[in-house]
Amino acid sequence: MVDLLQLVFAGLSQGAVYALIAIGFVAVFTVSGVINLAQGEFAALAGLVAISAAGSGLPLPAAAVVAVASVAVVAVLMERLAIAPVKRMTTLVSLILTLGVSTGLKALMLLVYGPNAEGLTPITPGGVTVGGVSIRYQELWILAVAGLVALAVYWFYERTLAGKALRACAEQPVAARLVGISLGRASLTAFLIAGCVGAVAGVLASPVYFTSWESGLTLGLKGFVAATLGGLVSVRGAVLGGLLLGVLENLTAGYVSTGLRDAVAFLLLIIVLVARPSGVFGRHAEARV
C-alpha cells in the first residue's frame, strides 16, 4: 500500500506539470484554433533561463520572474511573426508553423546552453515522510502553484467578460468581429497566457525533473495528450487529463516496466482519438481534435 501511495503521489506531482503544459495548449486552441507544438519548448526555455539567471547570482524568485517574462516575450514574438501574418490558418498550417518554431527554439537552446541537463535549486529543499510516503517539498510546491494557476486561468476564461470574448473568437469569429472583438489581439493574449503558463511549468519542474534543450519535446507531447483528453477546449479537462496521465505513467513504471512509461501517453492518445475524439473530459460533443 505504501508503494502504491508513493507512486500515486509522484504521479500527481508529475501530472501537475503536464496539466500546466496542457493548459497552454487549451489557451491557444480555444482562441485561435492553433495547435502550438512549441508549448513544451516554452517550459524548457524557462527552466534554462531560470538556471542561468540563478547561476549569475539572482535570487531564486527573481530568476523565476526573469524566466517567465523572457518566455512571455518569446511567445508574443512567435504569435506576431509566425502566426498573425497567416491569413488562412488551418490545423495543418498551424502544425507546420509551430513545429518550425519548436525546432528553432531547440536549436537556439542547444547553442546557448549546451547539451547537458541541469536542475534549478528547489524552492524549499528537503522533504517529509507521511505514513511511509516520502514527499519532497518541491513536489508540494508544484501541486500548489499548478492548482492556483489552473484556477486563475479557468476563472479568466469561464467567469470574466474578457475571457469569454477570447473564446468567442474561435467559436464564432464572424460574430466576435461584428461586436468589436479584435481577433488579432485575442490571439496575442492567448499566446501570452500560454507562454506564461508553460514557463511556470518549466520553472517548477526543473528542480525535480531537470531541464535540457530537448526536454521540451517530452513535456510538449505529454501536455498535448493531457489536453486531448479534455478535447483541447477545457481547462478543467486538461488538468484532469494531466493528473491522470502522470499517475498512469508512474503506476506503469512501478508495476510493469519503466520502459513502458512513455508508451502510456501515446496509447491514451490513440484510444481517445479513436473512441472519443471530443475528449474524455471534454465539455462538448463536437469533435475538436
UniProtKB/TrEMBL annotation:
It is a multi-pass membrane protein. It is found in: Cell membrane. GO terms for molecular function: transmembrane transporter activity. Its main location: membrane. It comes from the Bacteria. One of its GO terms (biological process) is amino acid transport. GO terms for cellular component: plasma membrane. InterPro entries: ABC_transp_permease, BCAA_transport_permease. Keywords: Amino-acid transport, Cell membrane, Membrane, Transmembrane, Transmembrane helix, Transport. The keyword Membrane applies. CDD domains: TM_PBP1_LivH_like. The keyword Thylakoid does not apply. Pfam families: BPD_transp_2. The chain crosses the membrane at residues 16-38, 58-78, 90-113, 140-157, 178-204, 224-248, 260-279. Belongs to the binding-protein-dependent transport system permease family. LivHM subfamily. This is Amino acid/amide ABC transporter membrane protein 1, HAAT family. It comes from Geodermatophilus pulveris.
